[in-house]
């Protein structure tokens, strides 16, 4: 079974502030923009909804109002997908062909490539196993992770320091070509974020 990433460039603080904003006009706007998507999700998750999971619309309202959230952890996935819709609305989708689809521990493999290049401030695997911002409940799927602007700035500094060391020594870390390509895609995401003050990256694995 394969997985995919959805990765967004956005103002992280502004996006997180949408959680619990309790703005009825905003809720109406989001509902209108995702009407067909909400209906498709309800059809896809019909069996879980019959067992008590919130509908996509109910989950969206709970995220925008900051609750209430179902106490059943098996229902938490709906809030994750609702949060992803807010990110889709607020941000720009970033190319992720190195990660969609992917299998097994690929995200961890790319993290190893980043570490080989001295980059430890961010982790691709966080997109697969991280948690959404509080008060949203954790769900295994979709996985959610965030690269804050400060972490991105530090990661790029780390990469540039390694790059200078490689230029001086003439010895680059031995990485497989597909890992190098994926690492370069991550660096491109970070450079796009660095060019816009306050911007970061939020990613989802599903």
Q: Outline the low-pLDDT stretches.
A: none
- Report the biggest beta sheet as strand number plus sense, adding barrel if it closes: 4 strands, antiparallel
Task: Count structural domains.
Answer: 1
Beta-strand content estimate: 5-15%
Overall average pLDDT: 96
Helix/strand class: alpha+beta
Strand order across the biggest sheet? 2-1-4-3
Helix content: 40-55%
Morphology: elongated
Number of helices: 10
Round the Cα radius of gyration to an integer and report it.
Answer: 18 Å
Extended strand count: 4
Through-space gap between termini? 11 Å
- The string of secondary-structure elements, in order, is EHHHHHHEHHEHHE
Topology:
Blueprint: E1 5-11, H1 12-16, H2 24-33, H3 35-44, H4 46-50, H5 56-65, H6 77-90, E2 92-93, H7 106-116, H8 125-129, E3 143-147, H9 149-169, H10 177-194, E4 199-205
Antiparallel strand pairs: 1-2, 1-4, 3-4
Protein name: DUF7691 domain-containing protein
InterPro entries: DUF7691 (IPR056108)
Domain DUF7691: 1-205
Compact description:
The chain has 206 residues and is of the alpha+beta class. It has helices spanning 12-16, 24-33, 35-44, 46-50, 56-65, 77-90, 106-116, 125-129, 149-169, 177-194, and strands at 5-11, 92-93, 143-147, 199-205.
Describe this structure in words.
With 206 residues, the protein is an alpha+beta fold. It has one domain. The protein is built from ten helices and four strands, in the order βααααααβααβααβ. It has a four-stranded antiparallel sheet with strand order 2-1-4-3, with helices on both faces. It is elongated, with a radius of gyration of 18 Å. The relative contact order is 0.20. The mean pLDDT is 96.
């Amino acid at each position: 079974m394969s997985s995919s990433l959805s990765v967004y460039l956005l103002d992280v603080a502004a996006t997180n502030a949408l959680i619990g904003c309790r703005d009825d006009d905003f809720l109406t706007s989001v509902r209108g923009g995702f009407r067909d998507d909400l209906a498709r999700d309800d059809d896809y998750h019909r069996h879980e909804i019959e067992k008590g999971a919130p509908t996509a619309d109910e989950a969206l309202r709970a995220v925008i109002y900051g609750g209430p959230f179902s106490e059943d952890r098996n229902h938490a996935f709906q809030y994750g997908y609702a949060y992803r819709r807010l990110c889709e609305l607020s941000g720009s989708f970033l190319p992720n062909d190195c990660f969609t689809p992917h299998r097994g521990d690929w995200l961890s493999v790319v993290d190893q490539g980043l570490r080989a290049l001295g980059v430890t401030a961010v982790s691709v695997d966080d997109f697969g196993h991280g948690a959404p911002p509080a008060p949203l409940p954790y769900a295994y799927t979709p996985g959610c992770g965030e690269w804050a602007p400060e972490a991105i700035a530090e990661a790029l500094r780390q990469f540039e320091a390694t790059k200078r060391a490689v230029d001086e020594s003439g010895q680059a870390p031995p990485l497989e070509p597909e890992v190098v390509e994926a690492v370069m895609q991550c660096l491109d995401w970070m450079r796009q974020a660095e060019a816009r003050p306050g911007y970061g990256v939020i990613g989802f694995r599903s």
